[in-house]
Design a protein that fits this description.
Shape of chain A: globular
Radius of gyration of chain A: 21 Å
Number of domains of chain A: 3
CATH topology of the largest domain in chain B: Fe-only Hydrogenase (Larger Subunit), Chain L, domain 3
Number of strands of chain B: 17
Oligomer: heterotrimer
CATH topology of the largest domain in chain A: Rossmann fold
Shape of chain B: globular
Number of helices of chain A: 15
CATH class of the largest domain in chain A: Alpha Beta
Largest sheet of chain B: 4 strands, mixed
CATH superfamily of the largest domain in chain B: Fe-only Hydrogenase (Larger Subunit), Chain L, domain 3
CATH class of the largest domain in chain B: Alpha Beta
Helix content of chain B: 25-40%
CATH architecture of the largest domain in chain A: 3-Layer(aba) Sandwich
Structural class of chain A: alpha/beta
Strand content of chain B: 5-15%
Order of helices and strands of chain A: HHHEHHEHEHEHHEEEHEEEEHHHHH
Structural class of chain B: alpha/beta
Strand order of the largest sheet of chain A: 6-5-11-8-9
Chains: A alpha/beta (about 400), B alpha/beta (about 600), C alpha+beta (about 160)
Number of strands of chain A: 11
Largest sheet of chain A: 5 strands, mixed
Number of helices of chain B: 18
């Protein structure tokens, strides 16, 4: 066990500035170009998991033709093992609103929406109170940017950005074909920036601290800090803000129960890293990216059960429109059951691995594409647990 | 290349399977490949519908891109290098088809679509059959809706491509079918999974035309018709609708747009029907009745100033349209012409007039119709369609069902001689033929109405009223100024007769909404429920697309031009029936046999 | 079709409007009111929003929380996703089943409780977790569940 603990960061959950909405007010006085330059300089990448450079996303949307544009905050945090957005919205909602308002200024939007997952409906009273306060404040500083909360109703797929728009529009949450991307065709077909809750907070913090200080955290490819949701077999589950780019073995040393055999990085749609690869795995865009979910499993856990649980999850949460995802998930779940029961030979796992690869290549959206992540990483690394 | 706005469209160059091609910006990879005659397989894609991109069969490999994009949904971009049949593509595509088969009741020999199923075609192309994956069919509790007289919906054969859902919404504006649930439970469903006959379904059959598998099919009555034919005590009369003769060939190996009237008649005779007659006869009769009805309504409105008269008057030949308006605009039922459709007029006359003339007992007569339509099956089963004292039309077969019977009988269709319809209710005119296309009823009616009112032929070259010839996907408005009328029609002198023609129920809905909101003022509305009119009907040969329908339309006008008589009121048999049997248009007998009433239905 | 006795659909439509984007809040409003959306509710909504009934049904059945079957006054949703499962979800469900004398997926005869299993609720660090209507409960033990449910039973 190493002596030095991973550095704790206090960017996201740090205290508000002394004067209410001070950073927002100061930022609004700056030019759009200056703001974008700072964002670009900071190297900020989206915190939802995919890691698209935030400055570029905003820039494309700003440049997209059209009078009406929208800012959408993706708070449909459904990835198993992730609960950081709930914490952020509970503890520092003002930072989220500020980040959205800054985005509104940059892209020329007057409306912002927070799509809050139905499971977090209990947050609404507090959030709405805070929003009323924000709107009053916005009025006093002459800021024309309204924020409204739209509620989900229990559908993981709505975390996929185009499915989220569909849901906001009153439709089934079925992902759209891409292109066109949200930057040109988002909510109601208008250019839209959609970012994760944490990303908006990061933006505000970059505005507050400047890009240089932000960049001092993390690594070249993964700038800044990240809020991690730690769960599973750990004595200290919870929310931790850590630097990006940390080696997984150090994480396990600190958070594991001493018996960790695997860490699921990035939730059910992420990768499962076995003990033997802890040392060589870096958490960040250069290594294994994550939206923040870190689930630890100790040697008492059956990885078959873990995978089976994920697959059931995907089977139910797939929107069902595209073939590889709708049928593929069922086949993978039934397939590992058949192998376990001995109805199929163990060689059938290879067939399923190929199928999962086809799903990665052909599914319409990120959900279907990423089923292969956990499937292949668990089946490859824990093959014997799948068979016996 | 220019578009309608005369702006130059940017050209995009890309390489597909090693061949360079340049296409308009905004085109998809699939379209570009088709330009090169490279066939990328598809399932959920349909030319008539918006792109869904959900079956993923049409995936291709794009160099420097990790995933395999769906070619139907991916727009071309400069310098793209595409492989449509690489190793990666082949395996992934086979996987997708295998996945579809794993949740599909692939009991092909028991399927109505056996041999023409698109999924089956793909399966045979890809040499599936090694049962790559587990069979999921037993897991799912699939339901079959067999309660409808027109359409059967079998979920066990559904591959969830959503063509039917898009058809019902985009082309028909009905949305009786939708997508329900999600994930492994996702299915194509009506409201609360009610049977089709309980929901707003119009039975138009457009979904049947586009379903790639046997999930949506017409209820077929082939065996019942064979039974009737082989029953020595029965006299089996068959009538054929105008749009059948220009499309039947497609199901029998001939190209679209081929007129096969003579061969069709020959085939029907060889199948053993006692008399082969023509729905065109009652199409002409419809014109006389409906034309007079329109004139009567105009007279009441313009001369008598009767406030209760319902104008505009709308045509009533299309049973899909009838059910649609009953559900959606029940307050306008009074605006529908009370004329039965030609099929039902024919049925009523077969069991009365025809029997009388042929000295037959109506109870021994079986009346069969061949229709381009699935809604006609429902129409024939309406309780009000028994004015002869019997079921006026006993069995309705689609064009496709007739093709099956011809194949069953072992007839070599192409080599059949041309034969003529039997007489008595077998004579027709060009005006009747064009009932098969959008705008045709309007044109036929105007040819007659104008002449009745003015005593002169309609003043268009070759009697072709091109202004009302509807176009697919368009609402066409036209007006005709009536001048120098006969004295008894003086009140119409100088009146501009305002007409509108629409095809596809989505367009019909728009027309009716405009009428309802007072945005549009018409005298006469022609609606056909299906894209392009009956020629694009739900009972027509599969596949269907705009090219095919355009060819059918050309054939219909060609048939019209080739007829010696082109105005309904000049049909000699029509003149005869008024003299011998009906008396005069809108007379007592007509009212009893040829007119009907409608039933308001719930939209929800 | 019979109209609703109390015009809650009309009120929701007044509040959220008649565009397609209003559909989700309206459906959610019905759930808040009576815990499930009936076929009559859906036809009423379809009429107000000028949609087909099948379209409303399609949207409603997509979302796990937009129940289209009658549910109890209190809908209990126990998280079944991985960490909650690892930390004793089964015992929690068992405890509730024993207390309410129903199986998961069922509603008590007095229509007070419905027990369901659901996907990740976002309380992975404090699993097992459950929602009762919209209120979350985490760090569940059989004893804790006993106390919570007893309280609801007396409500």
């Amino acid at each position: 066990m190493s002596d030095t603990k991973l550095k704790r960061v206090d960017l996201i959950f740090g205290e508000y500035s002394n004067v209410k909405y001070k950073v927002l007010e100061d930022t609004l006085k700056r030019s759009t170009d200056e703001i974008l330059e700072d964002l670009l300089e900071s190297g900020l990448r989206g915190r939802g998991g995919a890691g698209f450079p935030t400055a570029m996303k905003w820039k494309y949307t700003a440049q997209a033709p059209g009078e009406e544009k929208y800012v959408v905050c993706n708070a449909d945090e459904g990835e198993p093992g992730t609960f950081k957005d709930r914490e952020i919205l509970t503890r520092v909602p003002r930072k989220v609103f500020s980040g959205m308002a800054i985005c509104g200024k940059v892209i020329g939007a007057k409306r912002g929406y927070i799509y809050l997952r139905g499971e977090y409906k209990f947050l609404l009273p507090d959030l709405n109170k805070e929003l009323t306060d924000y709107h009053e404040h916005a009025k006093t500083i002459g800021l024309d940017f309204l924020i409204e909360i739209k509620l989900g109703s229990g559908a993981y797929i709505c975390g996929e950005e185009s499915a989220l728009f569909e849901s906001m529009e009153g439709n089934r949450g079925e992902p759209r074909n891409k292109p066109p991307y949200p930057t040109t065709y988002g909510y109601l077909g208008k250019p839209t920036v959609i970012n994760n809750v944490e990303t908006f907070v990061n933006v505000l913090m970059i505005m507050r601290l400047g890009p240089i200080q932000f960049k001092m955290l993390g690594t070249t490819d993964s700038r800044g800090s990240k809020v991690f949701s730690v769960s599973g077999d750990t004595p200290i589950p919870g929310i931790y803000e850590l630097e990006l780019g940390m080696p997984l073995d150090r994480f396990v040393d600190e958070f594991g129960d001493g018996d960790a055999k695997a860490v699921q990085v990035g939730g059910a749609s992420g990768f499962c890293v076995p003990r033997k690869k802890f040392k060589d795995t870096v958490i960040g865009f250069e290594g294994v990216p994550t939206g923040g979910s870190m689930m630890l499993f100790n040697s008492s856990r059956s990885m078959f059960n873990v995978l089976h649980n994920y697959l059931e999850f995907f089977e139910e949460e797939s929107c069902g429109q595209c073939t590889p995802c709708r049928v593929g998930c069922q086949q993978l779940r039934k397939g590992i059951e058949a192998v376990k029961k001995g109805d199929k030979k163990s060689l059938y796992l290879d067939q399923l691995l190929k199928l999962s690869e086809s799903m990665r290549l052909t599914a319409k959206c990120g959900l279907g594409q990423s089923v292969a992540n956990s499937f292949s990483s668990i089946v490859y690394n824990f093959k014997e647990e799948m068979i016996y | 290349m220019k578009n309608t706005k005369n702006e130059t469209i940017k050209q995009i160059s890309l390489t597909i399977d090693g061949i360079q091609v340049s296409v308009d910006e905004g085109k998809t990879i699939l379209e570009a490949a088709r330009q090169l005659n490279i066939h990328i397989p598809t399932l959920c894609f349909h030319e008539d519908l918006c792109v869904a991109g959900n079956c993923r069969v049409c995936i291709v490999e794009q160099e420097k891109v990790k995933s395999l994009p769906a070619s139907c949904a991916m727009p071309v971009s400069e310098g793209m290098v595409i492989h449509t049949n690489s190793m990666k593509v082949r395996l992934a595509r086979k996987h997708i088809v295998e996945l579809l088969l794993s949740e599909h009741n692939a009991d092909c020999t028991k399927c109505y679509k056996n041999g023409i199923c698109e999924l089956q075609g793909l399966a045979s192309q890809m040499l599936t059959g090694d049962h790559m994956f587990l069979d999921l069919v037993p897991e799912h509790k699939y339901s079959i809706d067999m309660f409808n007289t027109a359409i059967i919906k079998d979920d066990s054969r559904c591959i969830r491509c959503q063509r039917c859902v898009r058809t019902c919404e985009e082309l028909q504006g009905v949305s009786a079918l939708g997508v329900a649930y999600r994930g492994n439970y996702m299915k194509i469903s009506t409201f609360f999974e009610h049977p089709l006959f309980e929901v707003v379904c119009t039975n138009c059959g457009q979904c049947v035309n586009r379903c790639p598998t046997g999930a949506l099919i017409e209820r077929n009555y082939i065996d019942q018709v064979w039974d009737a034919i082989y029953d020595p005590t029965k006299h089996v009369v068959v009538q054929t609708a105008p749009a059948v003769r220009i499309a039947l060939g497609e199901s029998l190996g001939l190209p679209p747009g081929k007129i096969v009237t003579g061969k069709m008649v020959a085939a029907l005779k060889r199948l053993g029907f006692s008399a082969v007659l023509d729905t065109d006869f009652t199409a002409d009769l419809t014109i006389i009745e409906e034309g007079n009805e329109l004139l009567t309504r105009l007279k009441k409105a313009l001369l008598d100033k009767d406030p209760n008269v319902c104008l505009p008057m709308a045509t009533s030949c299309s049973p899909g349209w009838i059910k649609f308006i009953e559900h959606t605009f029940p307050e306008f039922l009074g605006n529908l012409s009370t004329c039965k459709s030609p099929q039902q007029m024919f049925g009523a006359l077969v069991k009365t007039y025809y029997c009388q003339k042929r000295k037959l007992d109506a109870k021994n007569v079986v009346s069969v119709s061949i229709m381009p339509c699935t809604a006609k099956k429902f129409e024939a089963n309406r309780p009000e369609m028994r004015s002869s004292g019997y079921k006026d039309v006993d069995y309705v077969l689609t064009t496709r069902e007739l093709a099956i019977m011809i194949k069953q009988a072992g007839l070599d269709f192409e080599s059949l001689p041309d034969e003529h319809f039997d007489s008595l209710m077998g004579a027709s005119t060009g005006a009747a033929v064009i009932f098969g296309t959008t705008g045709g009823v309007m044109e036929a009616a105007l040819r007659t109405v104008y002449e009745v009112v003015t005593g002169r032929e309609i003043p268009f070259e070759g009697l072709n009223i091109t202004a009302v010839r509807g176009t697919e996907g368009e609402v066409r408005e036209a007006s005709l100024k009536i001048e120098k009328t006969k004295p008894e029609w003086k009140f119409l002198d100088g009146v501009e007769l305002k007409c509108v023609v629409a095809n596809g129920l989505a367009h019909a809905k728009k027309v009716m909404q405009d009428v309802k909101e007072g945005k549009a003022h018409y005298h006469f509305i022609e609606i056909m429920a299906c894209p392009g009119g009956c020629l694009g009907g739900g009972g027509q040969p599969i596949p269907t697309n705009k090219d095919i329908r355009t060819k059918r339309k050309q054939a219909i006008y060609e048939e019209d031009m080739g007829m010696s008589i082109r105005k309904s009121h000049e049909n000699p048999e029509v003149q005869l029936i008024y003299k011998e049997f009906l008396g005069h248009p809108l007379g007592h007998k007509s009212h009893e046999l040829l007119h009907t009433h409608y039933t308001p239905r719930k939209r929800y | 079709m019979a109209t609703n006795n109390n015009n809650y659909i009309g009120e929701l439509v007044e509040q959220y409007g008649r565009t397609r984007s209003s559909l989700m809040p309206i459906l959610q409003g019905v759930i808040e009111k009576k815990n499930f959306i009936s076929d009559m509710d859906m036809t009423e909504i379809a009429k107000e929003l000028d949609l087909s009934a099948a379209q409303v049904y399609g949207t409603a059945t997509f979302y796990a929380f937009l129940e289209t079957q009658p549910r109890g006054q209190y809908v209990i949703r126990v998280c079944k996703t991985i960490t909650c499962d690892m930390h004793g979800k089964k015992t929690i469900v068992q405890t509730i089943e024993d207390m309410l004398k129903i199986k998961a997926g069922e509603t008590t005869p007095n229509k007070k409780f419905t027990l369901l299993e659901t996907n990740c609720l976002g309380w992975c660090h404090e699993g097992p977790a459950m929602l009762i209507n919209e209120k979350p409960y985490s760090g569940l033990t059989p004893e804790k569940v006993h106390d919570i449910l007893s309280e609801y039973m007396h409500k």
